[in-house]
Design brief:
Number of strands: 11
Shape: globular
Structural class: alpha/beta
Distance between the termini: 18 Å
Largest sheet: 9 strands, mixed
Helix content: 40-55%
């Protein structure tokens, strides 16, 4: 079945993140990618100064109503960086109006990393994001985001009990299935923990010494693409992790590519993994 995915997140015009990542990756995965921009920024907010920002929340109700009038339906809705608290309720109403029966809402609560919220967000936003996550079929937080969602102290050093505590709290909020990224139990390695109800699946991979802005968007988009193409959540988690690692490794070879990850030259590997994995 040829599937249509709606992704709702910002357009950072320069910087290889959000919609400029999601649109090509979802398309490469073999699904129709529809978009709803939550905001427009001249660049992303990490490393650039003086960037412009325009919240597009006021446009969302009319877009939703037009889609409803035209009976436009989506196989899945995938959200990333949202521009404001009001957009959480708009996303929920868009899901109600346009998500086809059996379709999935997949939420990347893109709001924090390394123990801190992104510059424009506060705890009120984190609380609103918790409502959206509770309505989702799958959420894809990193550890920092899981901590803000559950009001848990962020720790850089932890054990399996700490991670299981985060999963338990997220599921108690109503988050049905959790794909927790950046889970590292030993030096030199990191991984992804997939929690579907009581089931747990952990995929560990090499932790590279360098990192890139936008890799969370690359991972989430690859996961959504693989999952909606029929892969199980653990299979999609592995495909997305392997692809993201390869993007980081490739980018490290480039000169002065500090603002994002060069994912485009490796899209062929992602397509091959989905078709043959």
């Amino acid at each position: 079945m040829y599937k249509r995915i709606l992704t709702i997140q910002d357009i950072s015009c320069v910087g290889q993140c959000s919609l400029t990542v999601a649109l090509p990756i979802l398309s490469a995965c073999g699904v129709e990618a529809s978009i709803l921009p939550s905001a427009v920024l001249s660049t992303h907010t990490a490393g650039f100064t003086g960037f412009t920002f325009r919240d597009l929340a006021d446009d969302m109700p009319a877009i939703r109503d037009h889609w409803k009038k035209e009976n436009i339906q989506f196989s899945a809705i995938y959200t990333g960086y949202l521009g404001s608290i009001s957009q959480v309720d708009y996303v929920l109403s868009i899901r109600e109006a346009t998500l086809q029966k059996g379709g999935k809402l997949i939420v990347d609560p893109a709001m924090a990393d390394n123990g801190k919220l992104y510059p424009i967000f506060d705890m009120a936003y984190a609380k609103a994001m918790g409502r959206l996550c509770a309505a989702a079929d799958y959420i894809l937080p990193n550890i920092t985001e899981a901590c803000f969602l559950t009001d848990t102290e962020y720790k850089e050093t932890y054990d399996e009990g700490y991670i299981e505590g985060l999963i338990t709290k997220l599921q108690a909020m109503g988050c049905k299935n959790v794909v927790l990224t950046g889970v590292s139990y030993r030096e030199g390695f990191t991984g992804v923990l997939v929690a579907e109800g009581e089931k747990r699946h952990y995929y560990e991979h090499e932790k590279l010494p360098n990192s890139c802005h936008g890799t969370g968007d690359i991972y989430a988009s690859a996961f959504v693409g693989a999952y909606t193409r029929g892969k199980t959540a653990p299979q999609a988690a592995k495909i997305a992790a392997d692809y993201t690692v390869e993007c980081i490794r490739y980018t490290a070879k480039l000169d002065n590519h500090w603002y994002g990850a060069a994912f485009e030259p490796l899209l062929g590997k992602l397509i091959e993994a989905i078709d043959n994995g």
